[in-house]
Amino acid sequence: MRQLFEHVMSVNTMHDEPDAPPITVDNKINDDPCPPWEFYYTNKLFYGQNVKRGDSAKLKGCDCVGGCRPDSKTCSCLRRQHRYLRLHGESPPLQFNYDQNGRVIYLDYPIFECNDACGCDESCMNRVVQRGRQFPVEIANTRKKGWGVFAKSDIPAHSFVGVYSGELITDREAHARAALYDLVGRTYLFAIEMWYLKNIFRRRYRERHRPDTIAPDDGEPQLDDEKQSSIFVVDAFHVGNFTRFLNHCCEPNCTLVTVHINEPHLYKPYPCLFTEKDVKAGEELTFSYCGPISEEEVCLFFPCSVLLS
Ligand SMILES: C[S@@+](CC[C@H](N)C(=O)[O-])C[C@H]1O[C@@H](n2cnc3c(N)ncnc32)[C@H](O)[C@@H]1O
């Protein structure tokens, strides 16, 4: 059963990450051979009821040849990424949100990768998530938190770990499902928070009220105005991958970053897990279910300090 589970994980992802190292399963706690087989294993986002894929004709790409360069004067993907990095409040240099080794530069800013509409090839430095997982991980049972995910090799800080895949559902649907999951005592629901979109709405508001003073938007992916307030949630209960087993910690070693690739609709990025710090082989991979927690705050989610390990 365990080997079958490992095999299914590998077969269901072999097209989108052919070079990914295998994911293993281990259980030193009890006799269960593998986690409950209650979900379809995939790295993709499945669109739920009332959630439509964005219009692919609106996908904007660059005209670069070969790989995009951070010193390019013409790469439109570089300019788009830079627009969002400027929200940082400082003046970051013109750059992608990845360095030459494929590590994220700003973990708290969205990533706009090159996509299917771009002229650049697969070697482009701005294609990291779409190349797939590079580090081996293990799904293992823990004494007090159910199943969890452990690094099988050292993983450098700011590295891509995996896509938080699942069903993309509406906020309303998520509320209905949350009530059911509370009964089971386990939840795999995560709201995609995109604070940076608020700036776009603020600008649109100003455009409407002072149209002469604002420069026209140069090729920004479009949002439907009536959908401005909708929030999407990823539910990994029935559909997902190994990332659904990452447990919560208020001093986590991973964090979620929104990554825009082939979906032109700004509200539907891939939530992706990246390491926040260097991780040693054998360490449990965790992230904060409630976002960053300051030192003065107390984690209300789980008493992590008591329940760790
Ligand atoms: C996204 S799942 C994580 C995988 C889960 N452990 C499993 O076995 O499927 C979230 C659930 O894991 C458990 N969990 C996650 N972090 C925990 C923690 N720090 N302490 C106790 N339980 C935790 C809770 O039951 C929570 O609803």
TrEMBL record:
A GO CC annotation given for this chain: nucleus
Organism the protein comes from: Auricularia subglabra (strain TFB-10046 / SS5) (White-rot fungus)
Predominant cellular place of this UniProt entry's protein: nucleus
Transferase recorded as keyword: yes
Compartments reported by the entry: Chromosome
InterPro entries cross-referenced by the UniProt entry: H3K9_Histone-Lys_N-MTase, Pre-SET_dom, SET_dom, SET_dom_sf
GO molecular function: histone methyltransferase activity; zinc ion binding
UniProt record, GO biological process: methylation
Keywords: Chromosome, Metal-binding, Methyltransferase, S-adenosyl-L-methionine, Transferase, Zinc
UniProt-recorded name of the protein: SET domain-containing protein
Cleaved signal peptide residues: none
Residue span, Pre-SET domain: 60-132
Domain SET: 135-290
